[in-house]
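To: structure desk
From: M.T.
Subject: fold request, one chain
Message: Could you run this one when you get a chance? Sequence is below, nothing fancy, just the single chain.
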Amino acid sequence: MKMDENVQQYSTKFSSFEEKHMKIQNYQKEQLEKLGEYVSEITEESFWSIFPYILGIDSKLVLLEELYSTIEEFEVTEKEVIEWVEKDYVCYNKEQCGYLLNAVSKHSMIFNFK
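Reply: Done. Structure tokens follow.
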């Protein structure tokens, strides 16, 4: 799968966000724009400096999709969801791989993002 197709898949996933959640819509659009910019800047020389930012945005978008359902279910605000994403995306992959947050994880690119 090409990276452009991956960006398009995110756009499709988030197209279901309701208009009543404009802050979340704007946040995800901002993240997708950043992702598109980073992808367009990739060259053989720049890949390793850009890749950590792409991983970070990917974690934010996956976490946003997971937390989106909490708005109605747990009566949290859009602002709270966005704050959680910004705070927790740095440990998202670590948790998904089964590490405790205070545990030292093995060196891996998926834990090295910005």
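Reply (cont.): The radius of gyration is 15 Å. Let me know if you need anything else for the meeting.
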